[in-house]
Amino acid sequence: MFEIHFGQYADGLQGQGTLQRRMRRAPDKIWDFVSPIVAGLDYEYVGSGLGQTESGLTLRVYIDGPEGITVDDCARVSSQVGAALDVEDLISSDYCLEVSSPGMDRPLFEAEHYQANVGKNVKVRMAIPLDGRRNFKGLLSDVSEEQISVEVDGELYELAIRDIESANLVSHFGG
After folding, report:
1. Which domains are seen in the chain, by residue range?
2. Would you state the pLDDT for residue 173?
3. What distance in Å separates the CA atoms of residue 13 and residue 20, rounded to the nearest whole number?
4. Is the C or the N end of the chain the one with fewer CB within 10 Å?
5. pLDDT digits (tens, 9 = 90+) for 51-78
């Protein structure tokens, strides 16, 4: 089953009264397979998440472009990625494919994504707790190849990128 969604956020359908479980980074085999398809269609492959949602098992593919992303862009990518995934059978059970822009609460997957957003507020959920906590919301202050530094309430936390379950920019509206 394929669905097309525009403006999704990594932690659910915000503003629509639905609750969805968090996405985790999709396995490398999916990234390695989907990335060249998206690039071949002249879009930036931001990344993919895989997890359980209200729709069941869901593969969420994030794309971007210099002029942003439209619903037609999402449909184009969904058609190509969905057909290719069906042929390769990389996901052994039924799943829902969602193709989306990264939205204002852009998901962060790679060290390069974090580096491009130093100085911005982020929300990070760790797969492995650090000092007894899994959730960190604060200023992204530094990035290396293997870890990020997030300042939360005046305290600096060093978080290993490999241990991050999900991370997003935190958008601010108004002043």
Report:
1. 24-100 (3.30.300.70), 111-169 (2.30.30.100)
2. 64
3. 7
4. C
5. 998 889 999 999 999 999 999 999 999 9
Please, are residues 7 and 102 in contact by the beta-carbon 8 Å criterion?
A: no
- pLDDT, one tens digit per residue, over 85-121 is 999 989 988 999 999 999 999 999 999 999 999 999 9
What's the token pair of residue 35?
């990335």
Model pTM greater than 0.85? Answer: no
**Neighbouring-strand partners of residue 61:** 48, 99
Cα–Cα distance, 22 to 136 (Å, whole number): 15
> How far, in Å, CA of 141 to CA of 120, rounded?
8
